[in-house]
Design brief:
Arc Repressor Mutant, subunit A; 9 helices; 0% strand; 2 domains; elongated; 201 residues; mainly alpha; Tetracycline Repressor, domain 2
């Protein structure tokens, strides 16, 4: 059974994020990840079964950290508008702090491999669950349209955040992603409740 805790595990996760971001999953080699981590190939296999296991673990660890941070920040806001603004701000803030992670997520979360998709799906579902709770709260508070298609709305929110980060990554982080928080938030509000412009709390 592979080890899933400890300092070396964390070092491998960080190294894998960098190597896969730079080379892509299919071109990246376990030996490259080991070298980046300053470890032998055999040590990597003590913690991970194979390269696929490494990729899934990176998503679980990195996005898991993001989700926990998001939960904490959402808990500080009481209404749906405050929570939606916090969602946008946290998404951009977290990923922009680590360009390699941003690049990794923009490419590897779109994996075509079925086994990999199945492995990362629980993490993605947890993120969507938080988005859905904001949507449901907005409907309950009568801020969002009661006729809103919740599945389409969740996809719209995630897709808008995701594509904005893709644009930032494609331009090598050369624009201030934090300056996009307000306009993206306003855009989402207009889509969720009509032409009335929402205000953050």
């Amino acid at each position: 059974m592979a080890l899933k805790k400890g300092e070396k595990y964390e070092v491998i996760i960080e190294a894998a994020t960098k190597v896969i971001a730079r080379h892509g999953y299919y071109e990246a080699k376990v030996s490259q990840i080991a070298k980046e981590a300053g470890l032998g190939d055999g040590t990597v296999y003590l913690y991970f079964k194979n390269k696929q296991d490494i990729l899934i673990s990176v998503v679980e660890e990195k996005m898991g950290n993001f989700i926990e941070l998001l939960k904490e920040r959402l808990a500080t806001k009481q209404d749906c508008l405050g929570k939606l603004y916090q969602l946008v701000e946290t998404h951009f803030d977290f990923l922009s702090q680590d360009f390699n992670l941003a690049l990794f997520t923009q490419v590897e979360l779109r994996q075509a491999n079925r086994e990999i998709r199945a492995g990362i799906e629980p993490t993605i579902k947890e993120y969507y669950s938080l988005i859905n709770k904001i949507i449901e709260k907005g409907i309950e508070e009568k801020v969002f349209s009661e006729n809103l298609n919740k599945r389409a709305a969740a996809s719209m929110i995630f897709g808008t955040l995701d594509e904005t980060m893709t644009s930032w990554v494609m331009r090598d982080g050369r624009f201030d992603i934090h300056a996009r928080v307000e306009p993206v938030y306003d855009l989402l509000i207009n889509g969720l409740k009509g032409k009335v412009k929402g205000k953050k709390v």
